[in-house]
Amino acid sequence: MYIESLQKLARSNMAQIIYHRVKEIGSLQLFENNKDLSYLQVLYLYYCELYASLYSDLSMGEEFISSEIINDNLRVEAYLLFKKVNRKQKANSQHLPTHTGGAGSLIFKRGKGK
Question: DSSP alpha helices (H): ranges in the chain?
Answer without folding.
Answer: 2-11, 13-25, 39-59, 67-70, 73-94
